[in-house]
């Protein structure tokens, strides 16, 4: 089963979240809906029985960290997964590879499933960036964490730009990530980790991307905000086996 995960970024109030879910759940079952919503909407979204994620988590468990939010707090309001190392966190908010690594450990410790985001910026050496980001994030991680991990390959130049990686290009990047995971853990684990593509995914390009066997799903920003488009993406993903 291919998976579509919406990343709403800094969009939607509680009321807008409820309206969105009332609409999409007329067409989809709650188990098919995966959304990383703003912190303020997690509790209400979780009440619909969907898979709810946060878009960030502190690398600290608790303490004097003004403005941060802990993994325990996210679990407490019903989050079951969390995006870690999204390029907007890395590049706008200066999250380092070390912070990404600590966040991954912290999320796992409290039982949040981590979705680790990786990807190169325009003009960067893709494989060198993926290697660095994966090695740093996953250093000394145990197999139990690896087996709960999802990886999202999101080339930064494709995010919000309307430019998508070609399906073949995305598949090559995914194969590279899977090989890296194979060498960091082992081949059996690498074969089990879902790899999602993100970057300007829409209903008119999703099918070609998902036809690549290396691509197990998509992490969708802008197109996940519109309930009709979101339903379409999930329905199209179900048509690809
Ligand atoms: P867009 O789908 O808006 O390009 O965003 C992708 C993304 O950043 C998902 O995490």
How is this fold's topology laid out?
Layout: E1 3-7, H1 14-24, E2 34-36, H2 42-46, E3 51-54, H3 71-76, E4 81-84, H4 87-91, H5 97-110, E5 113-118, H6 126-138, H7 143-147, E6 150-153, H8 167-184, H9 187-192, E7 195-198, H10 206-210, E8 217-220, H11 227-239
Parallel strand pairs: 1-2, 1-8, 2-3, 3-4, 4-5, 5-6, 6-7, 7-8
Helix pairs in contact: 1-11, 5-6, 6-8
Bound molecules: 1,3-dihydroxyacetonephosphate.
What does this structure look like?
- The chain contains 11 helices and 8 strands.
- The protein has 241 residues and is of the alpha/beta class.
- It has one domain: TIM Barrel, CATH 3.20.20.
- Strands 1-2-3-4-5-6-7-8 form an 8-stranded parallel β-barrel, surrounded by 4 helices.
- Helix 3 links the parallel strand 3 and strand 4.
- Helix 1 packs across helix 11, helix 5 crosses helix 6 and helix 6 runs parallel beside helix 8.
- The longest helix has 18 residues.
- The mean pLDDT is 97.
- The structure holds 1,3-dihydroxyacetonephosphate.
- 1,3-dihydroxyacetonephosphate binds next to strand 8.
């Amino acid at each position: 089963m291919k998976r579509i995960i919406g990343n709403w970024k800094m969009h939607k109030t509680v009321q807008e979240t409820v309206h969105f879910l009332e609409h999409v759940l007329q067409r989809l079952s709650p188990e098919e809906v995966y959304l990383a919503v703003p912190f303020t909407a997690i509790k209400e979204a979780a009440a619909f029985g969907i898979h709810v994620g946060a878009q960030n988590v502190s690398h600290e468990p608790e303490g004097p960290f003004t403005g941060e939010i802990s993994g325990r707090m996210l679990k407490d309001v019903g989050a079951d997964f969390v995006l870690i190392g999204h390029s907007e966190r890395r590049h706008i908010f200066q999250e380092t590879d070390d912070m990404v690594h600590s966040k991954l450990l912290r999320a796992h410790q409290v039982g949040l499933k981590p979705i680790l985001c990786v990807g190169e910026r325009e003009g960067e050496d893709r494989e060198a960036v993926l290697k660095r980001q994966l090695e740093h994030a996953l250093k000394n991680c145990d197999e139990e964490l690896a087996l709960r991990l999802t990886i999202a390959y999101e080339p930064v130049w494709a995010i919000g730009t309307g430019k998508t990686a070609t399906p073949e290009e995305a598949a090559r990047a995914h194969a590279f990530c899977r090989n890296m995971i194979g060498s960091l853990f082992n081949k059996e684990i690498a074969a089990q980790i879902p790899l999602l593509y993100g970057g300007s995914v829409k209903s008119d390009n999703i099918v070609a991307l998902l036809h690549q066997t290396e691509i197990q799903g998509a992490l969708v920003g802008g197109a996940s905000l519109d309930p009709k488009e979101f339903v379409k993406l999930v329905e199209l993903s179900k048509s690809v086996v």
